[in-house]
Amino acid sequence: MSKITIAIDGFSSTGKSTVAKQIANHLGYVYVDSGAMYRAVTFYAMQNGFIKENYFNAEALVANLKNITISFKFNPQLGFAEVYLNNRNVENEIRTLEVSNFVSKVAEISEVRQKLVEQQQHLGKQGGVVMDGRDIGTVVFPHAELKLFMTASSETRAKRRYSELIARGETVTYEAVLKNVQERDYIDTNREDSPLAKAEDAIEIDNSHMGLQEQFDKIMQLVKVTLKKQV
Ligand code: DC
């Protein structure tokens, strides 16, 4: 059976990566978290002093893009590929609220997008990939056989992200997380280069009131219909 490309876009904390991992594991496809790549570049900028509180030297970051190598290595215990920055596992470090606070600014930079989109297209060129992000169905894989667009209210999303951060031992308030979610929504949808948008042929899924199993079943149903159309 031919392998398809599944593009999952949507606002932050809509549970894209959770369902994308489930679907990829179920189908034996590769899962690529494109947001992790933007986060890794942001983490690099923070580590190299290009980003500090209220300071962002975008030119220095652009000049150093050639020194950034991002890769993924499958971790069989976790069941997904973890992200590596210059051969160092940064899966945990890129998930902090500090990185979240800067990542949308980094993702606005065209040179950063160009580099990462190129790598994403390379990772998915054989098909058999589930990739989640903001511009996967519109820019990275405009010909993806199945495109999904995930939404949920900002309060629902902030509650989910807050619980995740608390479970990981971070000291954050719900209000700070909600503010971050709303700010990122604004920047992601209003930036000039590849803003977050629903592709015309994407199927919208609002999961504000949907359990994980229900969501998985719904998407698998769509996958089956799409696969049938391929033969
Ligand atoms: O999915 P995430 O929250 O980990 O993504 C982090 C940020 O990266 C998000 O605020 C916007 C940016 N991003 C992007 O611009 N394009 C993508 N394909 C994926 C993420």
Structure description:
The structure is a single chain. The protein is of the alpha/beta class and 231 residues long. The chain is built from 9 helices and 10 strands. It has helices at 16-27, 34-47, 58-63, 97-107, 110-123, 136-140, 154-167, 174-190, 212-230; strands at residues 5-10, 30-33, 51-52, 55-56, 70-75, 80-85, 88-89, 129-133, 146-151, 203-206. A hairpin with a 4-residue loop joins strand 5 and strand 6. The protein is globular, with a radius of gyration of 17 Å. It starts with a strand and ends with a helix. Residues 12, 34-35, 38-39, 103-104, 107, 133-136, 184, 188 line the site of 2'-deoxycytidine-5'-monophosphate.
Work out the oligomeric state of the chains in this entry. Answer: single chain
Gross morphology: globular
Q: In terms of per-residue confidence, which ranges show pLDDT below 50 for 5 or more consecutive residues?
A: none
Q: How helical, in percent, are the residues?
A: 40-55%
Strand content: 15-25%
Bound molecules: 2'-deoxycytidine-5'-monophosphate
Record field, number of beta strands: 10
Largest sheet: 5 strands, parallel
Question: Radius of gyration, Cα only, in angstroms?
Answer: 17 Å
Structural classification:
alpha/beta
Order of helices and strands: EHEHEEHEEEHHEHEHHEH
How many separate helices? Answer: 9
The overall pLDDT average reads 95
- Rounded to the nearest angstrom, the distance between the terminal CA atoms is 8 Å
Order of strands in the sheet with most strands: 2-8-1-9-10
